[in-house]
């Protein structure tokens, strides 16, 4: 990339794209007036990897856009570089969402590792230092989405992601996932015997994140911690009282650490166990309401049983494109939102299009005048 800077004026905040490390400008973290508090009266609008329906996922642009659109929480996946820097990136490989293949200096870095019980080949984050990762640029994962921002934004660190939330003019929560902890702990080593979970929690504590769900401290700086690995949630429960969400995959899925089946981890007995460490579950939406040939089938009792165990339910992922909306919703994301919020009783929704979900909620369950969201 050349040193010429490109000014993106599609957002009211300024993004400066150039070869220098900082490719966007943060506003001051100091605010002269009290921030609008987090709304807790309706299901949470969870910005899945930011507003990644518009910008490349897990970039500063995607997170800033989702905050402007009304997200309650910005969600991210946390991985680690070879030298132990925590970064925001979904895949353990760089192939799908960065320009790594254009960097011939890294052509010999392709590897095959076992990840969650299967062999994966690609350019793995754990084989690159943070300095090397800074030379890469993000690209849109899906070919049917806007490609104009490819190559314009870098990978960001966990700390930069946190600063985006803290710099918002209203209270915006964070929702980090400790991603592939078994794999990361195997390939990355930190000083003094620390593990991924230790460094993850230390970072949150350094920025003042603490408190149980809806406590005074939590409402000041809201945070949910999520993971597909139940052993990580148990480990984290001994390090922080921040609320945790146990993520659940499809019905053919097994946990990456304990090798438990979907049926095992959605049993009443397991809900009794996990609620000691977590405040909720995050299932794939098609595990809650199955679909056959893109038509909905009768809902499972997963939501009712989770609620009976005092567990919140935050399903994923809601996307506006026709590829992801079942025929029953007539290709209309607002009909889908209505079904999941008003009929299925969800407590929060992970969406790639935070603006659409925010608009739906403002139309159907607007906040009181004192709680109107501001970007």
From TrEMBL:
Keyword Signal included in the entry's annotation: yes
Residues spanning the signal sequence: 1-20
Recorded superkingdom: Eukaryota
GO biological process assignments: glycerol metabolic process; lipid metabolic process
Record keywords: Glycerol metabolism, Glycoprotein, Hydrolase, Signal
UniProt cross-references to PROSITE patterns, sorted A to Z: GP_PDE
CDD domains (alphabetical): GDPD_ScGlpQ1_like
Single annotated GO MF: glycerophosphodiester phosphodiesterase activity
Keyword Glycoprotein: yes
InterPro entries: GP_PDE_dom, PLC-like_Pdiesterase_TIM-brl
EC number assigned by the record: 3.1.4.46
Catalytic reactions on record: a sn-glycero-3-phosphodiester + H2O = an alcohol + sn-glycerol 3-phosphate + H(+)
UniProt GO cellular component terms: vacuole
Domain GP-PDE: from-to ranges: 43-361
Family: Belongs to the glycerophosphoryl diester phosphodiesterase family.
Protein name: glycerophosphodiester phosphodiesterase
């Amino acid at each position: 990339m050349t040193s010429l800077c490109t000014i993106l004026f599609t957002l009211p905040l300024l993004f400066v794209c150039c070869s220098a490390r900082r490719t966007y400008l943060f506003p001051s973290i100091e605010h002269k007036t009290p921030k609008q508090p987090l709304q807790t009266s309706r299901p949470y609008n969870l910005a899945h990897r930011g507003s990644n329906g518009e910008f490349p996922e897990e970039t500063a642009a995607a997170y800033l856009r989702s905050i402007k659109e009304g997200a309650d929480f910005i969600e991210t996946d946390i991985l680690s570089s070879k030298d132990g820097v925590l970064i925001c990136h979904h895949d353990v490989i760089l192939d799908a969402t960065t320009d790594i293949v254009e960097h011939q200096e890294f052509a010999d870095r392709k590897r095959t590792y076992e990840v969650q019980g299967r062999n994966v080949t690609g350019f793995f984050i754990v084989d690159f230092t943070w300095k090397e990762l800074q030379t890469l640029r993000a690209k849109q994962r899906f070919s049917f989405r806007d490609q104009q921002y490819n190559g314009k934004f870098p990978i960001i660190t966990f700390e930069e992601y946190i600063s985006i939330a803290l710099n918002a003019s209203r209270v915006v929560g964070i929702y980090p996932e400790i991603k592939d902890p078994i794999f990361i702990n195997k390939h990355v080593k930190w000083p003094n015997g620390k593990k991924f979970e230790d460094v993850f929690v230390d970072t949150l504590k350094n920025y003042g994140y603490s408190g149980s769900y809806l406590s005074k401290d939590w409402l000041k700086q809201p945070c949910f911690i999520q993971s597909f690995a139940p052993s990580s949630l148990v480990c984290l429960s001994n390090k922080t009282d921040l609320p945790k969400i146990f993520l659940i995959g499809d019905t053919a899925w097994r946990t990456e650490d304990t090798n438990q089946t979907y049926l095992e981890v959605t049993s009443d007995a397991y809900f009794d166990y996990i609620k000691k460490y977590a405040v909720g579950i995050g299932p794939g939406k098609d595990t809650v309401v199955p679909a056959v040939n893109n038509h909905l089938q009768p809902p499972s009792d997963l939501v009712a049983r989770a609620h009976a165990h005092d567990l919140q339910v935050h399903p994923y992922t809601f996307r506006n494109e026709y590829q992801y909306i079942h025929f029953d919703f007539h290709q209309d994301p607002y009909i889908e939102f209505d079904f999941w919020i008003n009929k299925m009783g969800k407590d929060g929704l992970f969406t790639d299009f935070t603006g659409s979900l925010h608009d739906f909620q403002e139309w159907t369950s607007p906040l009181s005048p004192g709680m109107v969201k501001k970007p």
